[in-house]
Amino acid sequence: MEIQDIPAYLFTGFLESGKTSFIQESLEDEYFNSGENILLLLCEEGIEEYDREKFASPNVYIEVIDSPEQLSAQKLHALTEMCNAESVIIEYNGMWDIQTLVDNTPEEWLLYQNMFFADASTIMTFNSNMRNLVADKMKFCDSVVFNRFTDEMDKMEYHKLVRTFNRRTDIMYEYSPERVELDNIPDPLPYDMDADVIEIDDEDYAVWYRDVNEEIEKYIGKTVEVKGRILLGGGLPGNSFIIGRHVMTCCVEDIEFCGVVCKASRGNRRNINAYENGDWVTVKAVITEEEHKAYHGEPGPVLSAVEIVAAQEPEEDVAVFYR
């Protein structure tokens, strides 16, 4: 068995979110289930059961995983070999941390698709009560499917929910098996990318930070004006510091400091010494991409400062993606 030659399809979501129905339909499809050996891992057993008689091919081996403790790389590898699996389907328990699966994925698996299913009538309640679990599933999925959607529901509300955690995933609204609509709501940036100086308002820091890290190429050579806390030292060169803010993705528990490297120009180096760690400053700088010690030698956004001035603390210390 060669390393990373077995496609794994991951389907996540909470109980009764539609995962089983989708997998059942997929296994009834001759194009998807054309006779190869498929290992189906059930990390959650809902009310709906699989109808094996309707599968396009009988070569589907079902294994129940009762607890996250059973998700070991050794066990999953053994199951793969036992049925000589050529592909793997995982119906994942929405109450389990995705990282548990990631940490124990066998080397021969290649995660080919990751879909999150949500009952549109209950997902907002889940998000209010278990936001960390919703974020855990949405952050890394390729697609989000809101089933049981109705014409009375506000698409923008669901669109914002997804975009809080993931700007690149596809979003689909399923009104019925015969009516599925792809989300086409544009995601314009809240600042003017064509301005001579791109001004990042206090409430837009989180969006800017994520976008400049995900799509650095469109920012290279642009001049930006952004406010944040200054961090000095930490083994950085004398002309470098970090400017950033605390950002909350989903809940208080996941607040983290998100900063970018800033290099002071020759004329601004003395100005750095006027500040202490934690001081708020506004920096006007040209954006480049460079390998830097602060990024562990990897390329990342670097601000070449042309102006550094003291700034007042924003009304909200912690930046968020949507208000």
Instruction: Report the span from N to C terminus.
Output: 49 Å
Low-confidence stretches: none
CATH architecture of the largest domain: 3-Layer(aba) Sandwich
Strand content: 25-35%
What structural class should be given to the helix and strand makeup?
A: alpha/beta
CATH superfamily membership of the largest domain? P-loop containing nucleotide triphosphate hydrolases
User: What does the overall shape look like?
Assistant: elongated
| Mean pLDDT over the residues | 91
Strand order of the largest sheet: 3-2-4-1-5-6-7-8
Listing every helix as H and every strand as E from the N terminus to the C terminus, the arrangement reads EHEEHEHEHHEHEEEHEEEHEE
The tally of helices reads 8
Q: What top-tier CATH class of the largest domain fits best?
A: Alpha Beta
The overall number of domains is 2
Secondary structure: number of strands: 14
Q: Which bin fits the share of residues in helices?
A: 10-25%
Radius of gyration: 24 Å
- Characterize the largest beta sheet: strand count, sense, and whether it forms a barrel: 8 strands, mixed
Output the CATH topology of the largest domain: Rossmann fold
Describe the structure.
This protein has 2 domains: 6-182, Rossmann fold (3-Layer(aba) Sandwich); 198-310, OB fold (Dihydrolipoamide Acetyltransferase, E2P). It is 20% helix and 32% strand. It has 8 helices and 14 strands. α4 (123-129) packs across α5. The model has no long low-confidence stretch (mean pLDDT 91).
Give a short summary of the structure.
20% of the residues lie in helices and 32% in strands.
